[in-house]
Amino acid sequence: MKKFRILIYGTALLSLAACKKNLLDTVSYTQESDAQMWTTDNLTDQGMAGVYAALRLNIDQGSASGNELYQFDRYGVGGMVRDADALQVGTITPSNGMFSSNWKQFYDGIQRANNAIFNIPLKSPSAADKKAKYIAESKFLRAYFYSRLNQLWHGVPVYLTPFTADDATKGRETEDSVWKVVVNDLTDCINEPNLPLKYGKGNASYGHITKGAAYALRGKAYLYTRNWAAAAADFAKVQEAGYTLFTGDYKALFKEANEQSDEMIFSIQNIAVNNYGSTTQFFCGNRSSFGSCWNTYLVSPVVVDMYEKADGSKFDWNTVIPGFTSLPASQREVYFFRDGLTAAEIAAASSRGLDMSKYLPGGNEARIKAAYANRDPRLTANVITPYSEYMGVNGSANQLYVSRWPFRSNNTPVWDLATDTKAYFYYLHRKFVYEGATETINRAYGPTDFPVIRFADVLLMWAEALNEQGFSQQSLDLVNRVRARVGMPALQSADVTKPTYVGDQTAMRERIRNERRVEFVNEGINYFDELRWKTWREKTFAAGAGIQQIWGGNVVNYSWKGDYIYYWAIPQSEIERNSNLVQNPGWIN
Q1: CA distances (Å), origin 289, targets 281, 284, 377, 394, 550
Q2: Is 25 within 8 Å of 59 (Cβ atoms)?
Q3: In Å, what is the CA distance from 402 to each residue of 247, 284, 425, 433, 573?
Q4: pLDDT tier for residue 443 given thresholds of 50, 70 and 90
Q5: Which pLDDT does position 349 carry in this prediction?
């Protein structure tokens, strides 16, 4: 059984007695609550819960905020958003709420951490070891929020003591200076003797920060500063702390039963209460197992095509359907039709200009399913592909669904998988989406913790840090550990005739990057990777890029307005409030 943490809303305490530790959303501290906070052992615990709760400030069960980690996949190669996004179509300005809401959340988290770091030594009567541990945890969280700010804005104001809105008038530090702040906080965290290396599954403190998490986050900070040797050393320390890859099925890693496996280093804690868990099943296309709902966040065909064949060779549509890629995208739809189209459906397709002589009335489904067979197993673990099954719910009983095109209603005994965009055919997420009547209650129920850093991430960052110092067998070995977990053949440098051959640093760099792209779908990692590598434009804004149906036909076109969008705009409201803030180049309100 899991336990709920005691939580804080301003000065009001809420104790939930059930089964899981969690840190729920809080409002910002007021002067009145600050005066009372930290003055008893219980209030010290509650105050620390409030710091952790900043991780959940953008979680909104009623609407898609666009600010949760997994939702950032819409900007990377792995995802898309259902409706046109201003950043991708080129209409975004510094007044856009995305900029201001993220800025506010991160600084709210920093303020909470500062409050703890400053006040625990002054006010708390708790035991010295607890206070030292809480200060270290708060420094980690402050470092985490500053790292998020720096990833997006590349230099922000730094506040290391509690501040009010009137006090927040500093100018921006340089990007390098902010990374130094991050590294310093994480170093203090690592040096705290009362902080453990790791918590094991079921430990009463599971979900709290560890030295292993601090090493992982500091290693990532070193990647941003191109301090490759220091990054590699920190990632090695994560392994020494006892973290390792989950040895079971990759798909099972993302189920509630394995949320405390030794692969999970730092996770957002979710709970088994409606409206206080993950929202992935709410907005990723399946109404918490009911085979329908809002597909706000979708899988991009770009990443689907990146999944290799089972032998490690690149996937090529033309080996499945000769001439496929030379056809205009709009003409490829014919290959994705279900068997047994009605006369009316055929007539409608013909009126759209499709060559229906390419349609196989009794074999169309089998032909297209072959494109997804014998591929990297992570493809079908992460994505609901055409004509694959999804176990949902009808009422309170299990109901099998299949992703088919065009959609038809009431196809018993196996129903078509439905979303709110049935007029379009999209890849849907499978990772983190609940299945079957035994796994979920409704779309607002998502108790599975959301991983922020897991060991596969560390292994691939470690491989990157080593490869940037020079091509090596050690880097190959680290990537191969991730590949071996899903049964993919090892990369090697011995036989140039094999598809897994890697011959030099440049080739290895791309292999590592592609491994990250296919491993972390729907985990909010890829967009930040592409920004860091400066590959975002080429990977997501290539000619013809857009929100695409499965066959590559655009529903919305993307528009690249300039390299300036690698750097987020300082929110216009902050520019107007603080005259010392200087806008990133290129942004015009």
Answers
A1: 8, 11, 22, 9, 22
A2: yes
A3: 29, 16, 12, 15, 47
A4: low
A5: 97
